[in-house]
């Protein structure tokens, strides 16, 4: 077995433990992945404020350095743990297990994992999450699913953010959806603006639906 296979096998075993740990608490984790600048943290801030009276939430913040995003998240009132990866380009299941122990989310919580900004290696690592969510900004280009197929193949949901900027950029939503579904025909897609609130209710509804439709794994 190659070194890569050994690393992934060990990671997957820890991810299964994470998933079981969360299941015992009737909690779930959503793994949010994107390139830098997609508006992922802004999306999370607005989501946490909207969920405050509905369901407990907590956040694991992954970045190579600083606690800037975790500080922003804590200002919403939600607990957050910062995980700095240094030169690492992704979170793995062991880092998430340690963060979950520190967070100690309550029963019924949703744990948002904001992964390191990167459209390559985060796709390879199961963290014990219920769903993988890719957040893309309309400023990034319509061709992203073709350039980063493994990320879109791994995703359960794609959130296209910053749609308020569509009049000012060259981004074709229909063509983007065609490219994404060529890579992954089962993708669910939502178009939102975390800044204006457009489309956000559909995102909130999708989160709520995850307790009704758990994955078969």
Structure report:
With 217 residues, the chain is of the alpha/beta class. Strands 3-2-4-1-5-6-7 form a 7-stranded parallel beta sheet, with helices on both faces. The protein has helices at 3-24, 40-51, 68-74, 93-103, 144-147, 149-154, 173-183, 200-209, and strands spanning 28-34, 57-63, 80-84, 110-114, 131-137, 157-161, 188-191. The protein starts with a helix and ends in an 8-residue tail after the last helix.
List keywords for this structure.
7-stranded parallel β-sheet, alpha/beta, 7 strands
The helix content is 25-40%
- Number of helical runs? 8
Please list the strands of the largest sheet in the order they lie side by side.
3-2-4-1-5-6-7
Q: Work out the strand percent.
A: 15-25%
Which shape, going by the Cα principal axes? globular
- Mean pLDDT, to the nearest integer, reads 94
| Whole-angstrom Rg | 16 Å
Question: What is the string of SSEs from the N terminus onward?
Answer: HEHEHEHEEHHEHEH
Task: Report on the biggest sheet.
Answer: 7 strands, parallel
Structural class label: alpha/beta
Q: Based on DSSP secondary structure assignment, what is the total number of beta strands? A: 7
User: What is the terminal separation in angstroms?
Assistant: 24 Å
Instruction: Enumerate the spans where pLDDT stays under 50 for 5 or more consecutive residues.
Output: none
